[in-house]
């Protein structure tokens, strides 16, 4: 069995890198959506939501960098073209969304998608004995589960 430069199974690392590139795509599209919510929000909760969306997209862009660096650590190349992101993301881009309910709903759904994807990668990382990727996904999951709870509470008044 061939090993990567950090001592992991090459075949399993390649699968992980592919899944991480898909996650990177989802993060990039979600980041762009949340940035749009920040710019376009209109509602009585403008000030609170405008600030919250900035906090979220700032965190998302940090995670984009961390995911890309993990792909590099595994010995592979992170995708960097937006065309790649759009074709691999599990989140669709949203254009000119401005109502508080729609922005909250989009953010909640985005985090749910990320959680699903990260749990899949966590399982693969465990199978590959890749503690670095597992730890990263575990940290993201813990943080985002709390955000889902908070957005779910805020979205109780969102129209479906």
From TrEMBL:
InterPro entries: DPS_DNA-bd (IPR002177), DPS_DNA-bd_CS (IPR023188), Ferritin-like (IPR012347), Ferritin-like_SF (IPR009078), Ferritin_DPS_dom (IPR008331). It comes from the Bacteria. GO terms for molecular function: ferric iron binding; oxidoreductase activity, acting on metal ions. CDD domains: DPS. Pfam families: Ferritin. Residues 19-158 form the Ferritin/DPS domain. Belongs to the Dps family. PANTHER family: GENERAL STRESS PROTEIN 20U (PTHR42932:SF1). This is DNA starvation/stationary phase protection protein Dps.
């Amino acid at each position: 069995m061939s090993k990567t430069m950090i001592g992991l199974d090459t075949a399993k690392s390649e699968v992980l890198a592919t899944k991480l590139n898909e996650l990177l795509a989802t993060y990039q599209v979600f980041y762009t959506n949340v940035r749009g919510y920040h710019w376009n929000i209109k509602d009585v909760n403008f000030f609170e939501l405008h600030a919250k969306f900035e906090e979220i997209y700032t965190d998302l862009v940090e995670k984009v960098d961390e995911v890309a660096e993990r792909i590099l650590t595994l010995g592979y190349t992170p995708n960097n073209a937006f065309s790649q992101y759009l074709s691999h993301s599990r989140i669709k881009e949203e254009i000119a969304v401005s109502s508080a309910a729609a922005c909250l709903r989009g953010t909640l759904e985005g985090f749910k998608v990320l959680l699903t994807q990260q749990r899949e990668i966590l399982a693969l990382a465990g199978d590959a004995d890749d503690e670095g990727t597992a730890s990263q996904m575990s940290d993201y999951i813990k943080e985002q589960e709390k955000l889902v709870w908070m957005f779910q509470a805020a979205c109780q008044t969102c129209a479906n």
